[in-house]
Amino acid sequence: MKMRNPPVNSLSLEFLTELLISLEKLENDKTFRGIIITSDCPGIFSAGLDLLEMYGRDPAHCAEYWKAVQELWLRVYLSNLVVIGAINGISPAGGCLLSLSCDYRVLANNPKYAIGLNETLLGIIAPFWFKDVLVNTIGHRAAERALQLGFLFPPSDALQVGIVDQVVPEDQVQSTARSVMAQWLAIPDHARQLTKNLVRKPTADRLLQQRDADIQNFVRFISRDSIQKSLHVYLEKLKQKKG
Ligand SMILES: CCCCCCCCCCCCC/C=C/C(=O)SCCNC(=O)CCNC(=O)[C@H](O)C(C)(C)COP(=O)(O)OP(=O)(O)OC[C@H]1O[C@@H](n2cnc3c(N)ncnc32)[C@H](O)[C@@H]1OP(=O)(O)O
User: Fold this and answer.
1) 1-239 maps to which CATH number?
2) Which atom of ligand 1 is nearest to the CA of 121?
């Protein structure tokens, strides 16, 4: 599955909806047993959630957007398919969450391809379920530091902390992902799926038990003047970077 939402594969409402529909189709087609998620945007896996869906929008839109973000996460995280991330570009925040929700992550060895939950650098916070997935992946102490400081790990650090499983030369990302897929597909589906569910369900359940409250918290938080100002400053910085 090659994500294509130029220029930066930001997860807009429209793009999230497209991803959801594609995933649903693949899940329902019993000829598919696994997917490799990668990017068609050179150097960028995904720039994360689309900031323009959260900036200057009314509460109803923010609520609709957040529901779609929850939906995509639950679908990828709990997918019955084997999900391998072939991460061929930078993947901050929501892009990192998407990667963390795969069963296995292969990252291209390019110092520009940093990965992490950098929300604090934007003056916002990672929701509890983003945090839970990171803690599950790299452990409590490493997650505590990474989240507070908004670390974006370059490949060597990413491998060391365990946020990715493998770092390979850029031209070997897809072939490595395919080899890994073959290894995972050698396991009987029912046994692998039940085991995945056993490991992941408690984390997903924490959100499932309070989805509406999570949406309301998001809307309240993102609508604050101070948060809207932080987003404005960050978006301006992105513009200025271009010169
Ligand atoms: C009591 C408390 C209760 C709390 C309750 C819960 C609260 C929950 C709070 C909220 C949670 C939100 C979680 C957020 C998750 C996210 O994912 S936020 C997004 C994070 N992403 C980033 O920080 C990446 C930003 N982008 C970049 O760093 C760069 O763009 C890039 C990806 C490295 C690519 O660089 P380059 O190739 O140089 O391209 P640019 O010129 O920078 O960008 C091209 C255009 O794209 C626009 N853009 C970039 N990223 C985004 C984005 N994420 N969303 C929207 N738009 C983006 C960029 O502005 C450029 O636009 P133009 O200038 O119009 O061309």
Assistant:
1) 3.90.226.10
2) 23
